[in-house]
DNA sequence: AAACACCTTCGAGTGTACTGTAAGGCAAGA
DNA sequence: TCTTGCCTTACAGTACACTCGAAGGTGTTT
């Protein structure tokens, strides 16, 4: 049984990207498409998996340029596995650092929300260590 | 003892923004500055705290437009506290959702790194539940 | 006197990742 | 036949948040 083939419109809906974006990614060398006798693009399950993966990478914060580089290395074969691993490791480190930073900022925001609640209830009573720093942000 | 006053250049270094950005934020209504007799901007500790706070808000993912709205509400007084609280709560929810999503993408990336390591060591042995899904991304 | 830091308005440039349009053409289905 | 969906190249437009430069000015410091 031959694998199902999807034309760009159907494929776009499947992977959640626009046809514009799919052609754009192809221009950029991130994805490949096969063509039928009329030159019309078609995609298979394999392409769904690949697009799924690059969306995961993008979701971690990887940029198109980095993705391009990654794809280029991948095309060069197994000898570049070490380098690819290092790329992913770096992306991972950066993403984790950004998440921590964002969580720190969120702590301040949470504290402000709490402060609003207390102010509304006229029952301000706070003795956390964090308190001194945070008080500076309240009028 | 009068509070120290900072001109824009010094202040920019203190808060980690460029003088361009400070004037831009002022144009946008995010910050205010006092002026000396010659019309030269100066800032005080109070402004350091305020800029610190808006940088925390920005750090959670809040956009300039939202920040503008927040500042406008703040200027309207305590009657808008409820609305401000809701704004912050929404930003918090969005930020937490984005963090979770990013962590999910990171899990895939981590798995790929692990897969590279195993491939390099020729000892692939993996029996996690997650495994079936993730295998789809490896060539 | 020259250098320096600041002031103004206004508009152009930067980077990222798309998103869309124009203008022309092909092939299959109702 | 007409519509729909696809194809191409090439370029303009969008959103966001700056970032910078021009061109003219003031006041303080060396």
Task: Provide keyphrases for this structure.
homodimer; 139 residues; Multidrug-efflux Transporter Regulator, Chain: A, Domain 2; 3-stranded antiparallel beta sheet; 65% helix; elongated; DNA-binding
Determine the N-to-C terminus distance of chain A. 70 Å
Q: Please give the CATH class of the domain at 1-59 in chain A.
A: Mainly Alpha
Radius of gyration of chain A from CA coordinates:
24 Å
H/E element sequence of chain A: EHHEEHHHH
Strand % of chain A is 5-15%
Lay out the secondary structure.
The structure is a homodimer of 139-residue chains.
Chain A: E1 6-7, H1 8-15, H2 19-27, E2 34-35, E3 41-43, H3 45-59, H4 64-75, H5 81-121, H6 131-135
Antiparallel strand pairs in A: 1-3, 2-3
Helix pairs in contact in A: 4-5
The first copy, chain A, binds a DNA duplex (30 and 30 nucleotides) through helix 2.
Overview of the structural elements:
2 copies of one chain form a homodimer. The first copy, chain A, is mainly α and 139 residues long. Chain A has a domain at 1-59: Multidrug-efflux Transporter Regulator, Chain: A, Domain 2 (Orthogonal Bundle). Chain A has 6 helices and 3 strands, in the order βααββαααα. In chain A, strands 1-3-2 form a 3-stranded antiparallel β-sheet. In chain A, strand 2 and strand 3 form a beta hairpin. In chain A, helix 4 (64-75) runs antiparallel to helix 5 (81-121). Chain A is elongated and about 75 Å long. The A-B interface holds A 49-50, 52-53, 56-61, 74, 81-82, 84-85, 88-89, 91-92, 95-96, 99, 101-106, 108-110, 112-113, 116-117, 119-120, 136-137, 139 and B 49-50, 52-53, 56-61, 74, 81-82, 84-85, 88-89, 91-92, 95-96, 99, 101-106, 108-110, 112-113, 116-117, 119-120, 136-137, 139. Chain A binds a DNA duplex (30 and 30 nucleotides) through helix 2.
């Amino acid at each position: 049984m031959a694998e199902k083939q999807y034309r760009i419109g159907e494929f776009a809906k499947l992977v959640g990207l626009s046809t514009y974006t799919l052609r754009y990614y192809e221009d950029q060398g991130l994805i490949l498409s096969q063509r039928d006798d009329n030159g019309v693009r078609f995609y298979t399950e394999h392409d769904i998996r690949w697009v799924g993966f690059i969306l995961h990478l993008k979701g971690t914060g990887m940029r198109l340029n980095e993705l391009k580089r990654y794809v280029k290395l991948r095309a060069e074969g197994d000898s570049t596995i070490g380098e690819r691993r290092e790329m992913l490791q770096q992306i991972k480190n950066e993403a984790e650092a950004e998440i921590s930073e964002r969580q720190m900022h969120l702590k301040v925001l949470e504290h402000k929300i709490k402060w609003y609640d207390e102010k509304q209830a006229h029952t301000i009573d706070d003795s956390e260590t964090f308190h001194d720093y945070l008080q500076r942000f309240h009028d």
